[in-house]
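Exercise 7. Given the encoded structure of a 190-residue chain, write a plausible sequence.
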């Protein structure tokens, strides 16, 4: 019995030390993006805006019926802002607004929250709404702007990766500023 107790006692004494164990400190991913530099872009559609020079490609997409579009790609962020332009006519503004709002509401299945912000620029006759979608939704930001008479522009931000809010949050915040800049600088052709 002494042969078992003595080695066990020695093992307990030697295993104890005076160092306190500390939890690992929280680490945050550090992603540095270049400062945004904007320049005015003339589009084949009846509006212009300022875009970040980090996006190296603007591509017009084929029109389907009454809608036309432009894709603004950010290869280094693996993201695209999809812009869709529609003409307001025959009292279809309510329908266009409802469709845009419904598209945002479809993300409520995966979204933790949807925060909206009204936007207006009376000098340029631009009025709209910006939606920030929190959580693992497919799109992190959506918006629409209109002059309420002739023009309606909606946009959505999508990443080329499976939505994981924690991972894409820094890029989403960076691109949110670009989307707001698009909204602020839209000018309609009269």
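Solution.
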């Amino acid at each position: 019995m002494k042969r078992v107790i003595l080695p066990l006692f020695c093992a307990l004494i030697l295993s104890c030390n005076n160092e306190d164990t500390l939890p690992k400190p929280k680490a945050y991913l550090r992603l540095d993006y270049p400062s945004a530099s904007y320049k005015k872009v003339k589009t084949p559609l009846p509006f212009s805006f300022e875009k970040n020079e980090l996006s190296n490609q603007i591509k017009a997409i084929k029109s389907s019926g009454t809608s036309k579009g432009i894709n603004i790609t950010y290869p280094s962020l693996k993201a695209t802002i999809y812009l869709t332009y529609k003409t307001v006519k025959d009292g279809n503004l309510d329908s266009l607004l409802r469709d845009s709002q419904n598209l945002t509401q479809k993300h409520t299945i995966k979204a933790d929250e949807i925060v909206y912000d009204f936007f207006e620029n009376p000098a340029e006759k631009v009025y709209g709404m910006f939606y920030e979608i929190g959580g693992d939704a497919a799109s992190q930001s959506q918006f629409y702007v209109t002059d309420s008479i002739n023009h309606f522009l909606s946009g959505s931000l999508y990443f080329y990766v499976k939505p994981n809010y924690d991972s894409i949050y820094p890029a989403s915040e960076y691109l949110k500023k670009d989307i707001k800049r698009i909204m602020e600088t839209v000018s309609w052709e009269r």
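Remark. The mean pLDDT is 85. Students should compare their own answers with the one above.
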